[in-house]
Amino acid sequence: MRVFIVGTGNMAGGIATRALAGGHTVRLVGTDPAKAAALADALGARTDGADVAPAVPDAVGSADMVVLAVPFDAARQVVAEYGDHLAGKTVVDISNPVDFATFDSLTVPADSSGAQQIAAAAAPGTRVVKAFNTTFAGPLVTGEAGGLPLDVFIAGDDPAAREQVAELASSGGLNPVVVGGLRHARELEGMQLLHMALQNRPEGHGWMSALKIVAS
Length: 216
Known about the structure:
There is one protein chain. This protein has helices spanning 10-21, 33-46, 72-82, 114-121, 137-142, 159-171, 185-198, and strands spanning 2-6, 25-29, 52-54, 65-68, 90-93, 127-130, 144-145, 148-149, 151-156, 175-180. It is an alpha/beta fold and 216 residues long. The protein has a single domain (2-198), classed as Rossmann fold, CATH 3.40.50. The strands form 2 sheets. The protein has an 8-stranded mixed sheet with strand order 3-2-1-4-5-6-9-10, with helices on both faces. The chain is globular and about 40 Å long.
C-alpha cells in the first residue's frame, strides 16, 4: 500500500516504522517540510530498502491510506481542508480527545467520539477508521511490549477499510483486533484515557506500556 502519514512527531515515526516493516510505501506530510524530510531520512537509515520520502499535501490523492498522526483538533481541521481529496480513501484517526491538563475526561460529548466528529467534518465517502489510538510511540517502534506483539484495536463502519487497516497492522508484526463500527471509537478513546493517565502515576510505565487482550 501507499500510506500517507500526516504528521512528523513520535507517533508518525512509530506508525511509519511498522508500515515500512510491512513493505509498504510511506510518504510524510507535515507543516514543516524540514521535519518531514528529517523524519524520512531517519526512517530510511534504520530500515533496509525503505521506500519513504516527504510529500506535499496535494499528493494525497495518490494514497491508498491516509493516517492522521496529529492531535484531535488538528485532525478535524486536516480532513476539512483536504475535502474531496480524501473521498473514497481509508483515513485512520489515531487521536484521543483528552483533557491533557488533567487526564480525567474526554473533550467530546458523551454521545460522540473524536473519530465520529472527524468523520462528520470529512467529505462524503471518506472512510474513517479509528486505530492506533491505544498504542504509544515507543512500543510501536519495536512492535511489541513485554515480549508480545501490540494489539491494534480497529473501529470503522466500512468493512473493506477496516480490513485494509488490519492488513497494515498485521504486515508490520502487530495483532489487529476489529471491534466493530465507528460508534465503538468512544470506548477505545476512553480506554486510552485511562491508559494515558496511568503514565503519570507511580504505577505508570513511562509511556512504554500497551493494552492487550490475553485469553487463557
